[in-house]
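Weekly sync notes, structure subgroup
Attendees: PM, AL, DS (notes)

Item 1: joint prediction request from the bench team. They want all three components modeled as one assembly rather than separately. Inputs as received:
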Amino acid sequence: MIDVFAQALADGVASGALYGLIALGLSLQFGVMKIINFAHGSLLMVAMYISLWASRYLGAHSLVAVPLVAVVMFVLGFAIQRWLLEDIYRKEATREPMGILIFTTGLWIFLDNLFLVIAGPDYQVIKGDWIGRTTSVGGLMFGYPQVAGFVFSTLTTVALVVFLRHTRLGRNIRAAGQDREAASVLGIDSARVYQVSFAIGLAVLGIAGALLAPMYPVNPFVGDIFGLRAFVIVVLGGIGSIGGAFWGGILVGVIESVGAQLLPATFSEILIFGIFLAVLYFRPTGLFGLEKE
Amino acid sequence: MTPLARGGAVGAALVAAMVVPLATPSPYALSIVTLTLLYGYLALSWNIIGGIGGQLSLGHAAYFGIGGYASTLLFVQFGVSPWFGMFAGAALAALAAALIGYPCFRLRGAYFALATLAAAMILKIAVENSHGLLGGPRGLEVTLLRDAPLQFQHTRKEFYYAVVVVMLTIALSINYLLLRSRLGFHLVAIRNDQDAALALGIDITRSKLAAAMLSAALTAAGGTFYAQFVMFISPDKVLSANLSVQIAVMCIVGGRGTVFGPLLGALLLLPAEEIARRALGGIVGADMMLYGLLLMIVMRREPRGVQRILRDLWNRTGAPRSVNAG
Amino acid sequence: MKLDRYSLFPGRQLPRVAAGILGCLAASLAISAEPVKVGYIIPLSGSAAAAIGRDMSRGTQLAIKHINASGGIKSLGGAQLRLIEVDSRGDPKVGITEAERLITVEKVPVIIGAFQSGVTFPATTVAEKYQVPWIVDLSAKTEITERGFKYVFRPTQIPSSGNADSVVDFVGWAGKRGTAKPRTAAILYENTDWGQDLAKRMRERFAGQDVKVVLDEAYPPNAPDFRPLVLKTKGANPDVISVTSYATDAVQIHKLIEQMQVNAMAVIGSGAGQVDSTFVPSVGVRGTNYTFTTNGWAGYESAITTPFAKRFWDEFVAAHKSEPNEFSVVAYSVVWILKDALERAGKSDPQSIRDALATTKMKDNDVTKLLGYNVDIDAKGQNTLKRFVVQQIVDGKYRTVWPPELTPKGFNMTWPAPKWSDRK
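Output from the run, pasted for the record:
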């Protein structure tokens, strides 16, 4: 019985790190621009398809495909912000960005159905010898993609934190997120910062999608499964906090995994949303939103 | 033209417009019109808190579901007419809005949106796990009585159309009156600048709470209507996050904070969806692609919605001045 | 070219030409008969059910093609069938309004649909109201035929309890064979009306078979992570694991059962995800080996025995590069059941079609051999003869093992399944 719990805990951490990575891009966009991007889940779906196609048509090992997907998604993110979102954002900069919310809802519906048209309704899985392999650590068993998901999620998160803290561009991004006007006084080109933030957000999402694709069957609606959850994690961790998204993801993963051993599986969802509401009520800055300068 | 006369003229035009669909011989067309008006009604209900009050609620499916479940449960279990159940659902939804809203109102903008989204999802999951009374994922069916207008059901679509027109008229009136009332004035002040509103001595929480409860109660009545129209409710349909988003989309695309904008949103989006389906039925998914595209185009053109676009066009052409309706 | 044709004309070609002219005449007669419109409501977008809707639509379209090519409805002067297919998007609202449109605008005299019970259940009330017959394809909600409706028929599906009965009866039968008797069971099912119906029945029936249910677990469909569920199952260490899931969920659960080496005498699917044509390719041969599943269709070996069935199978495979599954087979057969009714009705108004459907009796013909059961519509509009077989997947092939009389000669099922560590 102890074994089951240890395994559940470890599984929860591994899944959670990936959930955190999925939420990370959202948190960045949310934190810097205060926008709700409802197309986040659909963009994850797009990343998973790119990864699937890279492995199917280019014969790329799905881990080799990770940087490729990240680059494609970066370009896509830059383009979306530059040519689609920027104008709307400028028009309603002083009010709640409801326009962006509806626009990205439109993008969400558009992308889901675009992929239904071009990829068909079938779910598809990535094939590869390594995907079914397992390794055993201290009596606990892990699948290769699970380990890869955990390791690369953690590395990506650390890299992003380092980038935001210790590079000029990263500091500009954070400054723009904390105080838009002060940032412009300091001579920061906020439009460029937003483009880069959105693009980085999608690049990270691309990595997450490429890591998820070997584990989860891809279909045009797969984004819905992870999209809403990403919002939960962002708020749990503290909006705009990169570390917070990571820990928020792990918290959700562990609740889901360990909770399911104690309660019926459907109840762990209630538990997650309940904790989410409690955090919103009592600590709206998030559980881990402590990253203040 | 005095405001009253103008209101009267618009009202008369609306009443005339609403009689027209009754002349169509097609129950199908009438069903589509009825559903369109139901969404217009929901968008108007959302408008009270989301548009006029400026609080981006993404949890209205919760109130919609409460309305549907309350009336259906009372009817199936205790034989209470859904007409009464409608009010019970509305009261319950108002209570829920207070429970959800009170702590959430401290949260601004995106936080509020996510809190309401999560609250609605918890309700959905809870219903999905309540296998006894609420039927869990199986949902509840409204006992089929055919022609029983006193029990809120009829085989003729004209019945539902008449009901929805009355509901819509009520929602339009409430929005119209609210914008001219003290509460409406407070809400607009809060929406424009919460800190300034506070400085003016406006009780922010009370105003928001009143708007949220009113909005929820109206939405719940829409849920009862849906239950009686479809005769079957299940949590994945009436409590879904998609529905919450859809209601907000209708209102915002049409023009939030205005009286006719929300209705306009529904009048534009639902028929557009239907026409796209007819035109592109051969390619599965193409119709919804077009729908998504439409949302994107409207928001890029004018984030304040179609109502604003039309008003700008109207002003530019200078047409209103030449109208000699007096 | 022209010259050649004229030079060929006289002499022995003449009878063939005459036959050709006669054929043309017959064809033009056939075309002159008013085509029969068939309304078809099916989920083609909106959710993962779209893939099933697509599989069904393919079967339906092929049946329409075959019936029209073989001379249409003979008793109606060779009338052709015209399918009017609409996408329900899995939304009951759309189901209702589309049913209304099909009946009042398109004037269809009969509707087939709509796979999802949540759509079929409310939409059939529309058909009942307009007194237009509705043939339910695979919706399993019990109440669909329990409302006293006169225009709703379900020839190719029984309530989910029948599916659950097959699982339990099979387990009971397998236990008595002496190789290994199961004492405990885990039932895993998606938290939907379908999953709940199956689980409820299994719960009740397992008790009667002296099998203790040690884990009774509903999970939210399309959950982001199935590891916790499979881990919990492993911890419960049951003899039998029942998995009631649609394709994407089933693929992950079975993959994890392999990966996490959950050993049980038998893993038994409820014939949705496990009979999907993508199940074996996605999970792999090793992961699916020895897996049992119920199936509303007896499979290639047992059912593709007639030229009728062979033509369906071959043309389906040729057109779509994938093998038909239960969804496609049922969809194909339903149209032939409608054809049978139309032939007997001799008229194409809704009332005549309804009356003919109500007296449908098919025994040992091409269609029932393809389906694997006879059709006999009872007073409620239900065909109670539909049954589920149990199959075992061996090297990617579905072999029927229960009821035993349907087992292919020389095939012996593997029970209990070998431990994962003992497999290649």
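Discussion: Residues 50-69 of chain C form the longest helix (20 residues).
Action: AL to compare against the crosslinking data before next sync.
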